[in-house]
Design the sequence.
């Protein structure tokens, strides 16, 4: 078991703990990003084994057998893009919320009427 | 002609971009052209494929089947496509007067249609993830379209909670990819059926269903729904409740077909029960007209889930039919509610009085919607509820639960129907578009309530003439449940006891909702292993 593999699981549990406990909107967004990062890390780890080559056919690589699976990497790039879009939108909304309510605390927000 | 599924996805998206870039009033009418084209294409596709007795798979890019992206259409997906296109027609007609020069709104609306049609047709798990995320982002933007504090708050809640749910979808996707080595739903299905019991497959199924459950508002994770429905503009609430929630239910059906795991079917029935009953209870306590309708969406989703949980037989068919019927009558109710709110300038049902005197036509249409949702004979709500009941008829407790839910729904709509009585003068607003959209929906309600047999034949290839929907006993049942509902309303709900007030002001904050999501996953894991 590799270090980065364990690290992924630790990050995942930190992220889940964070979204379940943090009372601030910005912190929630940060923990959401941590979960996403951990999942990207895990998927890349599942997709590759030690001492494999890059997935590009060239003179250096010996055939296609010893290559890393390129699919997880391609998928994770897309996930990163989606995560960035969601983070940007969420941060924009939290700025708006601070303008309207003057607070970023979930609980205080919900208690305010209107 | 084979490429029609791609055209259906990309024509709305490209039109949306064109409308946004050109930014001229005249070109906004292009959205209707695009709608017409995709309507024509989807009917043509249906004709070409001979009614979809066999599923059609379109492999893109000329790659091998194992590694390529593919689109899949069968009876279920093509009927969802027709429903989607119909709903978008009606929503466009409904909001056209207000939004005809608002090119941003039209951009987001049409883009959402393309993404939703993609979500329905995709045969690839990662593409499904992407389409669900796109629909989440776009519907967030549409929810916050009024740009006031309340809607922005609801939009952020919706966006973050749904994204956190979808993260678990990704986690499930990793596990299924490591086991089967493919993301194509057909190949995954084949490999899983060969494998037999496998704990990793079970785990990934649970994670995926939890994510889909957030999207389609199952019991512990539906907190986003009433907030989002309450905050959105009327046309978007109709769309959210009628279709976007059903996107999650559709994914639920698809993943159940792929994984086909029996050990969790019973818990889905229980979750459906709790969803339906809690939805009805919250709806009874509310006073905001949109919140009442939103909580009824939850309770109807519960009924749908109760039907779908078996995944075979008559109750499954009833569940699928209820998806369609609910889409139609709930969007009718939301459109009517939006119009009434617009005229009266308030959303409290205790302040809205004398609707029938002021606008008799709209009230009649609203009453048709109410009769449908409460399950009156000759309207479409009763048909699917009866078929679900018919599928569960050997089980006494399950039937009684359905009766209780129906009673609660009746009570809640008696509370809502109080707004028709009394007298209150208001300034009328003429709106032909609202009338056209609502009349169409009401006619569909009545048609589906009376002539549902050809519909079920086409959709499921199953004959339902043996199930007796309209009879004297169903009429009696309805009258008794409405009478009981009226008594409950007079004696309990109208008094507004302390516990009802507490239920009304019950607010669950964001971190608690996340905790509920995690515990939802853990409950399912524990259930599947013991």
Sequence:
């Amino acid at each position: 078991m590799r270090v980065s593999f364990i690290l992924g699981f630790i990050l995942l549990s930190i992220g889940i703990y964070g979204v379940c406990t943090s009372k601030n909107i910005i912190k929630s967004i940060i923990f959401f990003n941590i979960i996403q990062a951990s999942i990207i890390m895990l998927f890349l780890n599942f997709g590759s084994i030690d001492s494999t080559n890059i997935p590009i056919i060239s003179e250096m690589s010996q055939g296609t057998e010893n290559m890393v699976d390129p699919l997880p990497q391609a998928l994770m790039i897309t996930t990163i893009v989606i995560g960035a879009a969601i983070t940007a939108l969420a941060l924009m909304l939290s700025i708006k919320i601070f303008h309207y309510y003057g607070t970023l605390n979930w609980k205080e927000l919900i208690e305010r009427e209107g | 002609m084979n490429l029609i599924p791609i055209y259906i996805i990309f024509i709305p998206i490209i039109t949306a971009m064109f409308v946004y870039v050109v930014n001229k009033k005249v070109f906004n009418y292009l959205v209707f052209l695009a709608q017409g084209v995709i309507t024509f294409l989807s009917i043509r596709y249906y004709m070409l494929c001979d009614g979809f007795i066999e599923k059609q798979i379109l492999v893109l890019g000329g790659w091998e089947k194992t590694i390529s992206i593919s689109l899949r259409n069968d009876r279920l997906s093509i009927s969802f496509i027709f429903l989607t296109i119909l709903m978008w027609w009606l929503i466009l007609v409904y909001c056209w007067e207000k939004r005809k020069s608002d090119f941003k709104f039209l951009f987001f609306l049409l883009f959402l249609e393309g993404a939703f049609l993609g979500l329905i047709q995709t045969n690839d798990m990662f593409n499904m993830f992407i389409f669900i995320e796109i629909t989440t982002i776009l519907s967030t933007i549409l929810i916050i379209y009024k740009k006031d504090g309340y809607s922005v708050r609801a939009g952020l809640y919706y966006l973050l909670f749904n994204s956190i749910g979808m993260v678990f979808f990704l986690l499930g996707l990793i596990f299924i990819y490591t086991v089967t080595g493919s993301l194509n739903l057909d190949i995954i299905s084949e490999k899983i059926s060969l494998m037999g019991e496998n704990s990793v497959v079970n785990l990934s199924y649970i994670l995926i269903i939890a994510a889909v459950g957030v999207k389609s508002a199952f019991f512990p994770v539906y907190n986003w729904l009433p907030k989002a429905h309450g905050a959105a503009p009327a046309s978007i609430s109709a769309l959210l409740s009628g279709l976007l929630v059903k996107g999650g239910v559709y994914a639920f059906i698809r993943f159940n077909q792929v994984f086909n795991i029996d050990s969790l079917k019973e818990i889905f029935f229980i979750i459906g029960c709790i969803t339906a009953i809690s939805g009805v209870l919250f709806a009874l306590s509310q006073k905001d007209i949109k919140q009442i309708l939103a909580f009824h969406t939850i309770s109807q989703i519960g009924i749908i889930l109760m039907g779908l949980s078996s995944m075979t037989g008559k109750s499954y068919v009833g569940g699928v039919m209820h998806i369609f019927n609910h889409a139609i009558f709930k969007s009718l109710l939301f459109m009517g509610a939006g119009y009434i709110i617009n005229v009266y300038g308030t959303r409290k049902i205790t302040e809205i009085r004398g609707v029938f005197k002021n606008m008799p036509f709209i009230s009649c249409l609203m009453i048709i919607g109410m009769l449908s949702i409460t399950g009156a004979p000759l309207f479409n709500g009763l048909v699917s509820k009866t078929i679900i009941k018919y599928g569960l008829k050997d089980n006494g407790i399950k039937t009684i639960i359905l009766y209780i839910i129906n009673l609660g729904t009746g009570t809640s709509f008696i509370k809502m129907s109080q707004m028709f009585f009394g007298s209150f003068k208001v300034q009328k607003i003429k709106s032909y578009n609202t009338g056209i959209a609502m009349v169409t929906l009401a006619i569909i309600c009545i048609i589906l309530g009376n002539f549902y047999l050809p519909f079920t034949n086409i959709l499921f290839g199953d004959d339902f003439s043996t199930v007796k929907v309209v009879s004297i006993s169903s009429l009696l049942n309805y009258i008794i449940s409405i009478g009981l509902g009226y008594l409950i309303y007079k004696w309990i709900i109208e008094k507004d006891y302390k516990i009802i007030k507490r239920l009304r002001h019950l607010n669950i904050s964001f971190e608690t909702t996340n905790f509920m999501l995690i515990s939802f996953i853990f409950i399912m894991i524990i259930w599947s292993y013991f």
